[in-house]
């Protein structure tokens, strides 16, 4: 039985998306306790920004190597190992006694997280047909947004009731158990029913015994306009959103609008609702009009204008307008799943892993830079009041979003569906 005709593929899909749902929550959950960490460990804002960035730095730095290795060796064990490392890092974070352990724990989480999305994309490519791929990416994006949503009011309530350590410890244990579940779903059961009889690359190697050298492939990809378009798109759409809500969104609501922690979490939740809607709706609309570029350019225009309006209001727009803008920014983040539809449409399946990693690197370089730079701006204007610091800080996501818009305009439209039956079995 072929993977792409098996009903078991939906069990794989559910397990992989559930994993992504839980892991994504740990990208932004630390942002809920930024002020508590500053108090408990006597840390300045710039250090908190760096703490948020270190996870994304590891993530960004490993995207291309993991993409290369996953293309060559297959994605299953990388996804399992990444989930386990994320769980262990989260457990260590919950027990941290000093600043050094906090940084080490977030670094470990970043290393584990780096293996998740690239291999999720490769697993979906192997278990599902090309004409199903864009729609499933939209559902995967929605699962990620639900993970971000978990890290708002529900996680904030957990923290308010038990302190910040028990919620992170519980999540870490759950992730370790999920790693065991993934091993059963991706390795043991497919072997039992005859879906993993051959290694991922065997059918490809029989036809092309000479494998392209890694440096040659990277040189070709790095000189490809479409790859850079995907990189810049993700830089502007994902990094601004993840970088801000993962570090400064909750303190922003508390310091500028005098919100409680719970109310500030609800502000972030509005953005996450936008992201939940944005992923499937944008994917559906793209398929409906048979275009990736036009809806994606529109998404980037919305993101850029939203950040710019916040800045034009001095970082302090009316609350009702702020809710609308956060919803639109979240919608844009959800629509960023089109980045990987562009990759899947533009490159052969044997290169999807490395190009996905390259594009994802753009988003998380942005997510590394934004919290740290934002923190330095806040520290610089500390004596002028919170509103002034946030006013100038919002220049950063506006500029990053403009880079994303330029990336969207660089996309070369290709409406011809890429569907190579001989390659579809490669995971």
From TrEMBL:
TM annotation in the entry: 7-23, 43-62, 74-94, 100-124, 136-162, 168-188, 227-251, 263-285, 297-314, 320-343, 355-378, 390-411
Major facilitator superfamily (MFS) profile domain residues: 12-416
Primary site of residence: membrane
Domain of life, source organism: Bacteria
Keywords on record: Membrane, Transmembrane, Transmembrane helix, Transport
UniProt-annotated location(s): Cell membrane
Gene3D superfamilies according to UniProt: MFS general substrate transporter like domains (1.20.1250.20)
GO biological process: phosphate ion transmembrane transport
Keyword Lipid biosynthesis annotated: no
UniProt topology in membrane: Multi-pass membrane protein
GO cellular component: plasma membrane
PROSITE patterns: MFS
InterPro entries given in the database record: MFS, MFS_dom, MFS_trans_sf, OPA_Antiporter
Gene Ontology molecular function terms on file: glucose 6-phosphate:phosphate antiporter activity
Record protein name field: MFS transporter
Gene source species: Neobacillus rhizophilus
Record lineage: Bacteria, Bacillati, Bacillota, Bacilli, Bacillales
């Amino acid at each position: 039985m072929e993977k792409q005709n098996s009903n078991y593929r939906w069990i794989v899909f559910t397990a992989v998306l559930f994993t992504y749902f839980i892991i994504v929550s740990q990208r932004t959950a630390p942002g809920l306790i930024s002020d508590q960490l500053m108090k408990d460990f006597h840390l300045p804002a710039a250090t908190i920004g760096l703490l948020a960035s270190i996870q994304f730095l590891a993530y960004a730095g490993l995207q291309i190597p993991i993409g290369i290795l996953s293309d060559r060796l297959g994605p299953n064990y990388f996804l399992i190992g990444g989930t386990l490392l994320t769980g262990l890092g989260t457990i260590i974070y919950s027990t941290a006694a000093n600043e050094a352990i906090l940084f080490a724990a977030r670094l470990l989480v970043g290393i584990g997280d780096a293996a998740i999305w690239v291999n999720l994309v490769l697993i979906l490519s192997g278990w599902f047909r090309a004409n199903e791929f864009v729609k499933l990416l939209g559902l995967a994006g929605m699962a990620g947004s639900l993970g971000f949503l978990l890290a708002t009011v529900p996680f904030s309530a957990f923290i308010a009731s038990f302190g910040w350590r028990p919620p992170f410890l519980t999540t870490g244990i759950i992730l370790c158990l999920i790693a065991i579940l993934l091993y059963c779903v991706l390795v043991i059961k497919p072997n039992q029913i005859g879906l993993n009889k051959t290694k991922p690359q065997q059918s490809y190697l029989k036809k092309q015994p000479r494998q392209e050298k890694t440096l040659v492939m990277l040189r070709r990809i790095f000189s490809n306009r479409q790859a850079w378009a995907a990189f810049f798109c993700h830089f502007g759409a994902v990094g601004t959103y993840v970088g801000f809500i993962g570090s400064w969104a909750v303190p922003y609501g508390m310091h500028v609008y005098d919100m409680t922690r719970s109310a500030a979490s609800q502000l972030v939740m509005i953005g996450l609702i936008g992201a939940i809607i944005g992923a499937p709706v944008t994917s559906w609309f793209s398929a409906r009009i048979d275009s990736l570029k036009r809806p994606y350019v529109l998404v980037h225009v919305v993101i850029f204008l939203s950040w710019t309006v916040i800045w034009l209001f001095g970082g302090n727009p009316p609350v009702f307008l702020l809710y609308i803008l956060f919803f639109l920014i979240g919608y844009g983040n959800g629509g960023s799943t089109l980045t990987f539809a562009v990759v899947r449409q533009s490159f052969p399946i044997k290169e999807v892993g490395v190009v996905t990693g390259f594009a994802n690197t753009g988003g998380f370089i942005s997510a590394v830079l934004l919290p740290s730079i934002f923190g330095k701006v806040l520290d610089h204007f500390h004596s002028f009041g919170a509103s002034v610091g946030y006013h100038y800080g919002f220049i950063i996501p506006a500029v990053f979003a403009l880079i994303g818009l330029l990336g969207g305009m660089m996309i070369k439209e290709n409406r011809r569906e890429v569907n190579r039956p001989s390659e579809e079995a490669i995971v």
